[in-house]
Each structure stands twice: as C-alpha cells, then as structure tokens.
C-alpha cells in the first residue's frame, strides 16, 4: 500500500510539472532561435511582403521612362496619411512620415512616431521614436474593428490584411495580453509566441501573470493557449497547465460560479457558494448557488437583482439549509432552515398615486447559527428581526387614500413570531365640511370646523415558528377594525389667546370576547370561555384647549449688546369622558366573589381588554391638563452674519406636563413629565426626558400599592424620579477638529490656490485636458501619489470613530423598610470606527460593552490591504461565544475571483469553552 501511495505522488508531481518544464523549454528555445542569423539571402520575388526590410535604404529605379498607360491601383480605397513633423515622398512610391504620424485605410488606423508606407506593395511599417535622453516614445498603435493593439514595431499589409508585431499589448476583457512576437491574420485573430496574460496594468513588470508559450487570440472572444504556467513577482511557479481557454465577452452573459472549499468539524469538508449565474435579460439576473458537506448537510441559495429605469428596483435572496450534526443513534439531529431577504423600492416618477415598497428580513431562528457565512457576524448574532411590505394607493382628485401592509417581528431567542397580515388603513385627509366653495365676506365661525377619518383593519397572530402554519384562523388569529373621527376648530380671542374645542369618536369592531371567573385554587381571575361573534365597542371624549405665548427679554450684565429671549407657551386643556364601565353602556362585566380571606368582593372587567385596539376607559374622566413649553435663545453681535447678529440656542425646548382628574375618587394627579431638547449644532441635538411620581407607596401588608398621599404633603418634594433615559451617538473623524478650530477653511483656500495644478504642485504640461494624448500601455503603472515640496509622499490619515451610549433609570425592587422603590440603572455602550493609515491599508472594528458582566460582549475587526493586482483581507472575532477568524487572498479582478486562497477558523460545539 505504501508503494502505491509513493507511485501516486510521483505520478501527480510529474503530471503537474510537465507543463511547467515544457513551457520553460519552449521559452529558452525561442530565445536561442531569436539570436540565430539566416545564412541564405532573402528571396527576390514571391516572398512574403511582411519580411521586407523595415525601411527602403536602397531603392532601385527603372532607367526606362514611365509608361504612359495608367496602371490599375493595387488598393481599393484611398490611403490617408498625416504627420506633425515632416512627410518625405520618394520616386519609388515610398512615403516616410515623422512625428505623430497616422495612416488611415478604410476602418484601419495606424499611429506611430515613424511610419514608412509602400504604395506598390501595400506594406506599412511603424516604430517608436527616441528623445534626446534615449527614452522611447510614440509607440505604434494599430486599430481595427474597435480593438487597439500597441507594440514597439509593427508591419502590416493592407491588401492581405496580415501583420507582424513585436512586444504587442492589447486589452481583452478585464485583462491584458502581452506578446513578444505576434502575427495577425486576416480575420483579426493573431498568433503569438512568448505571451503573457495578466490583469495588472504594469505591462513591463506585472505583479503576476500566466505565461503563455504559444497562443491564438480572437479579440473580444477568447484566448486558446498551449502549455502555460503561473509567474508571481517574476518567480515561475511549478503550477502548469497543458492548455488553457480564456473566454471574453463584452456582452451580458451567463456563466459558472466556482465554489470555495473548506472544512468544519461538525459537518465535515465542504464545497460552498458554487453554482450558475443566469443573465436573464438587461433588467433581471439570477444566481443559483449551493453548498454540500461530507457528513450529509447541504443547502441551496438563489439571489437576484432587478431594475427597470424610472420604474422600480430591488433584490431578493432566498436560502434553504439542511444541517445534519451528531452521530446516528447517539446525538443525531437534523435542522431545516429557510431565509428570505427582499428589498423593493419604486421610483417616484413611476406612479404618483400608487407606491410599493418592501424590506423583508425573514429567517428561521436557527438559520443564522447554522450558516457559516453569517456565524459570528453582527447580522448573525442579532436577536430581533423585522420585515414589512407596504402598498399605498391614493385616489386622484380626492382626499382618500388606501394602504395595505404586512409586518413580521421575530425573536430568535425563543423562536417567537408576531405576524400582521393584512393591515389595511383607509384615511381621509382633514376637510372643512361647512366651508363655502365661493367665499364672500368674512369667514364664518362654523367654516373653521375641520374633521378627518381613519379606518384601520388588522389581522395578527403571536405564536412560535413551528406553530404558525398549524394555527386556526378563527381561534388563534386576532382580527379587529377601528374607526377614528376627530373634529376640531381653532378660534382666536383677544388677539393673544387661541381657543380650540375638539371632539373625538372612536369605534372598535371585535370578533371575539372573553368571560372570566374567580378560581379559588389559583387565587386569581381566569378566562373561562371565549365567544366568537361580532361586537361593537365605542367611546368618545370632548376637550377645550387654551393656549397663548408670552415673550420676555433680558440683557445679561457681562454684555449689554447681548440679548436673551425667553418664549413661554402655556396650555390648559379641559376634557371630559363618561364612565364607560357603567352597566348602561354594556362594555364591562362584573361579578361577586369571596377572596382568600373570606371577604365579599366585586370584580369589574371588560370582555374586550385583550383586543388589539384596547377598550373604552373605565371611570369618568374630568381632566385638567397643564403643559408649559419654554424656549431660550441668545442673540450676540457677529460681523460674519449679514444682519450683524447671530442667534444661539440655549434651550431649544423645555416642556413640563401633568394633569388632574377632578372626577376620580383617589389618585387624581398624574405623573409629572419633563422633557428637554438641547441643540448644540445643526447636526448635534440632545434629547432628555424624565417622569416624576407625586404619590407615596405602602408595603406594610407585604403587597406594594400606591396610596392617595402626595409626597409634597410629607415634605418629600413634588415627586420622585420614576424613569429617565438618555442616549447619544456622536461621530468623530479627521475633519471634526479642523471644523472646530477653523483649519478646514484654510485648507479650502489652499486647494483653491492650487487649482489648475497637478498632484505635485507643478503646472500641467501642454496638451493636458482636452486633446490630451493617449496614455501608452508601455508607460508602466501610473503614480497617483501626491508629493510635497521636499518630494515626500503626502499621506492623509483618514479615520472615524462612532460612539453610542444609552442610559436608562427606572424603578427596581421595592424597599419595604423605606416604603420606596430602589432605583435601577441600565447602561449600554458600543463603539465602532475605521482608520486608513495609507491609501492601501484599511482597518475597521465594531464592539459592544456589557456593564453587567463588565467586559466586552462582542467585537469584530476587519483588516484590508490593497496589493494592486491582489487584495488580502482578514476578519476576526477575538471575544464572545463566536470566536473565529477568516483570511482571504484573492485577485482584484472580478474575472479571476476564483484565483484565491482562504483560511477560516473551525470553531464548533466540540471546541472547549475556557471562559
């Protein structure tokens, strides 16, 4: 067995080495033969015109006078030729063109620094020129059929349409074909010897190329080559091919997607992301890929993008994954997961009355854990997902509109799902029903009355993923409809007071109701029955609001020219709603029971309290609501402003609101709500809110309850902080401090002064801009660096840092000794950023910090290095339950995306957990 294995290895080494050594032999042989001199003189006649001398140094003329009979032209079209320097015509029908010469024949064009043309033999020869320091310039460029060929020397026969070139370079697809010797055929194809195929634009010294010993090139179609081998940084590698075929196409076409390989401990070796790409038409495509594992797992994926100009655009990505883990008869398990991502947007120009949009991110709860492409990524670790599809239709020449939507909310932690399908909304914009169509005179008071309408129908369910398609539409789904009709009008009194009466009517339609009873064994009220029938529930309320504005001005002592303005906007609202729990309305039920202490009690409940649109209010409400808005601004002198003053916002808005229910038996005062908005700049605004509780609590009997005693009457202040929250998400980059200290203006002025100069501060040479000469392929890699006055490369370090911090305070556990709730503070902190130390290096990171465990909960880092023709990237998650890494080295060209090396971390459930 060992001998067979050794012979197998020897056979494989010989198989892969033969093309390499054969290519080396052909390359050495071509060099040897190129130095041999032919001992035979050239044929006088009947030879190939391409082998004629490049320039006629000795032209023998006929001693006989020319024939008076006109000879027939050898070419069937006129040959146009131009030159910037000089044109020399000889008696032997030769033409010599110097200085940016150009020869045109039908659709064939040849450019070069020096061109020689023989009209009798239809032969043209072009070569480069040398400047005063011996540098080559003006390389010949041959154009035929939309394809350009650039070389150092070129011979071409207009009649036979054959040519011979040395050191030729042409663009084919996304790459370049470079050949030492090439012979062109009449069908525009050409044979070449000692060629290279590369995607690197440095043709003289490419970073990598596939050495082609001999090949045939069909422009814009394909390249067929004999033995070939890979060369990286000038080093030939013993990786050869006996032959190769490179197809090219400038059209939208289908093709095979090569897979990538890997291995994972739980599922085994794998081939992933391989399949076929379908170029359906110019508006839509489809890529079908799959993955397969040696231990039985497999998956399919379909991706598509579509776009129709001025109509719509979108994409979808669907996947199905079967994961098999464990050993049979021990811990074997099979998980079947699916995923659907769909985005759709409509162009506003497509239809001004109908709009369709979609943002779907749906997957089963275990899909993200089983997909290797998502494992350990932020998208794969998110616990909640949401999806929505919206369709809106406006009725022309009316205020009516109809919208339909589907909404899905998922939680991966417990595989719960909330689905609303459909959600229909009918809306009528605000109208003035009593307003005259042709107004004459002053506006009547009843013409100010306005009303609107909103109808909302919902059908929703809250369940688990595996029970969704087993649910019953009548018993498991909740469906209801809600009608809202607000009516209001605004009147002005005494020129300073706005009075707004309003009336709101709300009606709910339900298809089910519940019945409750007292359960002594549980010591609780439980649902005993559910009745499925149509029920109509409604409520209404009326309100009267008063609002005005007060202005105050103040000049601070530190500056008499500075003025501070205070705008105070008080608002008082009187509202009334009847007690809909009264038996005469029929919206509440009541029954008597004995509690665990034997006391006779009465319990009042609403059969519709579980309805999605709520229930009518319990108890009569006679509310007096107070709202106080404050705005504080400062005006300071400023020479930069055209008005001479600059406004600075001190407090953009400070609101205090509370209410008093005059018809309540107890606990008449509501919580005190305070909110403040600070505007530091146009892009930086801070919002802070807080809620204060004005009542005391009692826990003497073991249960916590709010008592009808105000804190202020016991000397404990107006209220205790009940909840507050604050969040901030600042972002910093390399321009932030420049803007603060005004350095960006200085740099902008410098850029304006340097306008019209190139990167190194020198004025551009003549001929740049319009009419700029063609960039030669032999000029090597373009240096796009910018240099300072001392010749050093200008390197601007680009970076950005984003922080997101949120803090929330609320009631926690109850302290029975102090009869007060303990405060509970929750904080979240995350940061992300990137830094680009050079134009080729890029580093970005993202992390979150857990204050409860006092450590970083998640972190991902990505490093990318642009190697011109190649790119190397690395991503790793150093902390958290999904520690992993991924390294990739691949060619930059999309044509060679399968030329890559990948290395992944193999984390699985078999790995030990050290934390």
What are the SSEs and their pairings?
Layout: H1 2-34, E1 79-82, E2 86-89, E3 94-105, E4 108-118, E5 123-127, E6 129-130, E7 136-137, E8 141-144, E9 147-150, E10 153-157, E11 162-172, E12 175-184, E13 190-198, E14 208-218, E15 222-225, E16 228-232, E17 235-241, E18 244-247, E19 255-257, E20 260-264, E21 268-278, E22 286-293, E23 298-308, E24 312-325, E25 333-346, E26 354-363, H2 367-370, H3 378-381, E27 384-394, E28 400-411, E29 416-431, E30 450-464, E31 478-488, E32 491-493, E33 497-510, E34 513-519, E35 524-531, E36 535-547, E37 550-554, E38 563-577, E39 589-594, E40 600-605, E41 621-637, E42 645-661, E43 672-679, E44 685-693, E45 695-698, E46 705-710, E47 720-728, E48 731-733, H4 736-741, H5 743-753, E49 798-815, E50 820-836, E51 841-850, E52 855-867, E53 870-877, E54 884-891, E55 900-904
Antiparallel strand pairs: 1-3, 2-3, 3-4, 4-5, 4-8, 5-10, 6-7, 8-9, 9-11, 10-11, 11-12, 12-13, 13-14, 14-15, 14-16, 15-18, 16-17, 19-21, 20-21, 21-22, 22-23, 23-24, 24-25, 25-26, 26-27, 27-28, 28-29, 29-30, 30-31, 31-33, 32-33, 33-36, 34-35, 36-38, 37-38, 38-41, 39-40, 41-42, 42-43, 43-44, ...
